Amino acid sequence: MGPLTAAAAIVGKKWHPRIVVELLRDGPLGFNDLKESVDGISDKVLSESLDDLQERDIVHRTVIDDKPVRVEYSLTEWGEELEQVVSAMDEWGTRYLDRTDESGE
Question: Domain holding 73: CATH number?
C-alpha cells in the first residue's frame, strides 16, 4: 500500500473525517457526546468507525474509572496530525460546493 492509499483509507471513509474534526474541536469526548456532534451517524456506524480509527492509531480510547465507569475518545498524535488534511478537505469542499451552486449543477 502506498502513502496516498494509506491516507485515503482513513480520510476517505464517510464518517472518519467528521469524527476527527469533532475530536480536534471538542475532544476528548464520550460516545454519546460524539454521536450528538456527528449528525446522522448511527450507534453501530460510530462504534465501527471508532474501532477502525483505534486500530489505525488515530483515536485513543480511555476508560474513566468514575461511577458509573465511562469511556472517552481522543486523538493520538497521528490523529492530531490530520488537522491540516481535514481542514484542506473542508476548504476544498466549500469551494467545490460553491462552484456547483453557481453553475446550477
Answer: 1.10.10.10
